[in-house]
Each structure stands twice: as C-alpha cells, then as structure tokens.
Specification:
By secondary structure, the protein is of the alpha+beta class. The protein has three domains: about 35-125; about 130-265, 2-Layer Sandwich (Double Stranded RNA Binding Domain); about 275-355, Ribosomal protein S6/Translation elongation factor EF1B (Alpha-Beta Plaits, 2-Layer Sandwich), CATH 3.30.70.60. It has helices spanning about 5, 10-20, 45-65, 75-80, 115-125, 160-170, 180-185, 190-195, 195-205, 250-265, 290-300, 325-335; strands spanning about 30, 35-40, 85-95, 105-110, 130-135, 135-145, 145-150, 175, 210-220, 225-235, 235-245, 275-285, 305-315, 315-325, 340-345, 350-355. A hairpin with a 2-residue loop joins strand 10 and strand 11 (about 235-245). Helix 3 (about 45-65) crosses helix 5 (about 115-125) and helix 6 (about 160-170) packs parallel to helix 10. The chain is globular and about 65 Å long.
Length: about 350
Amino acid sequence: MSLRTLCHRPGVLFLLWLGLWLPSSAVQAVRVPVEVVELTVPDRGVQARQEALHRGMTILLVRLTGMHPVEDVAALEPLLRQPSRYLVAYSYRRLQQEAGAPPEGLLLRLRFDRAGVVRVLRRLGLPVWDPDRPAVVAWIALEDGGRRGLLGDAPDDPRVQALHRAAERRGLPLVLPLLDLEDTRAVRLPDVWGGFLEPLRQASLRYDARPAILAGRVRRDAAGLWRGRWLLDFAGEQQEWEATARDPAALLATGVDGVADRLAARLALRSTGSGLQIPVRVEGVEDLAAHLAVRRRLASLAPVQAVRLVRVASGEVEFLLVVEGGMAALESALGHLAGLEIVETTPLLRLRWVPAAGNTG
C-alpha cells in the first residue's frame, strides 16, 4: 500500500497528523486535535451530514469529558440535540479505494468550536480533559493457536488498525513500538507477557519523554473467546484490569478504553465555580505573536478559567490566572503542555516560552 493511499484512511490520517507514526524526538505531551472529527458518509446530502454531525458531537464529548457513553448523560442532551451550533467548518474528500475493493464513500471532516463546548461543560460542572495529553506507548503480547508474539506498528495489520481506531475515538495519542533492533534488544516477549515494567519504561523513552505505558497480554482460549489482561503505568501509579470479547478488535479496544477512562479520571477537571488567582511570569516572549501564542496556550489548559494581562516587559510577560484546583492542578496541566517549560514555582511561578520550530501557536 502506498503512503498516499494510506493517508486517505481516517484512522491513519489522524495518527500521521499527530506526528506519532515516526518516533522522531521525545516530547512532553501530544496536543490532540480533539475538535476535529472525521467520519465516512455515503453522500453529500443534508441527512447524511446531520447524522454525521450528531455522531461527531458524541465523539467530541467523549474526548473532552473522558466519559463514555455520553448519550445517557442528561446534561449533555442540548449539545447532542444541536451540534450545528458548535460547528466551525466542514469539508469533504473522496476516499481512494484500492483495486478490487468496494467503494468507500466520502470522508467528512468536521471542526467544532472546542472552546465553546468547554465553556458549556464547565458551566454544567462536568469534567474537561485538556487536549495536551501524555502519549501512551502500548506494549502488547498476543497468543493465538499456541503461538506468541508482540504487536508492533504495522499499518496493514487489522489489529493495529483496530487499536488506532479506538484511540482516535477516545482522543488518545497511542504509540506502538517499531519492534526494530533497538526495541527487541531492550524488551523481550516475557517482559510484556509478565508485565515487567522496568524494561518497558526504559524502551518507551525513545518514543516520549514522559509516557503512559500500557502493557497488555491478549490470548484466545479454547472456546474461541479473546481474553485480555491490561496494566497501565503512569506517573508512578499502576492500575490493572481484565476483559473478554468475541473478537480481537473488540478486546484490543478494551485496553484503549481502559487507559482513556483512567487517565481522564486523573487528568480531567471539574469546575466548582470558584478559582484561585495565580500570578505567572513567562520569559522568552519577544514579540506580539509569541505573546498571543503564550496566552492561547495558558487559556487552553483545563484548570484555567481566565487569563488576565498584568505587565509586559522586555522579553517577558506577566499574567494573572484564575485556576480551578489551585497550584497543584496548574502544575499538573503545565507538565503536559508543549512550548512552556516550568523554570521555578516559588516564590513566583515562572515559565519559559520555547516554541517548536515553525510553530508559534
């Protein structure tokens, strides 16, 4: 399959856009474009688009709140009933089909007003998960018919595609190891099967500087039922769960959903209507573009309710942030925000603006 053909598959397109398909350099967090939802539709008709809008808003709310399903949450009914109010733009693109394959239809790309939806969620007191999220490096061992192996980043593998579809649905930046010489020297099959975390932690550093690690053991039993045992390692804590399913795609999705549920429970914040005012000084802000970029980044953090300009000096800017959850919540959110580094936290929170090359937003 050519790269051009690969790029026209929705799940792979999402991962290419995130830059996760190549482990080029370690990062602190991945900014997930949660407000962009891509769905296949049969045609350009109004009915097909309206149905896709409802599905798109459902996916957006799952990504933003970390809750699923969201259809039964009564407070979200107005958002689900009128998704077009929060639609910023949409576009179509015809999917390329491979020789001999049935027509795949159109890809509808929806862009929602994330900030507007977040304001509604905060007003309702519902959790909001910041789009800057830890990368999840997934080490998965599979057993089928008495044979065991590790699942690597092979785009044509249906099991890999199922994992990426589940991660896209939850807004989770998922990374599968390349399983090249470097990986296979560092991690052995028994390490993953047994859930031995230390080699997985060391090997995962090539993919992200502070990743969440998912270790999975998946097997098919004598009755044909798929069983999985999952282990999440994040920020010094470990959580385990088990699941069963009729097919491997559904079983692999339980691993992704389990990670998303647990990370959202830890990182998504609820508004209580009051906030602590925290002064923040940011250095390395040399021009108006940098000033605006820093302000946007700070305002995008889930615990930040308001950003007020206090002072502008040569090369630095001071803001007053209204923060839900206090300093601990702010520091946690900043730890996963690309472009801003914490210099010190006392007596004043000082940050340094370090934009990525070619990126000022």
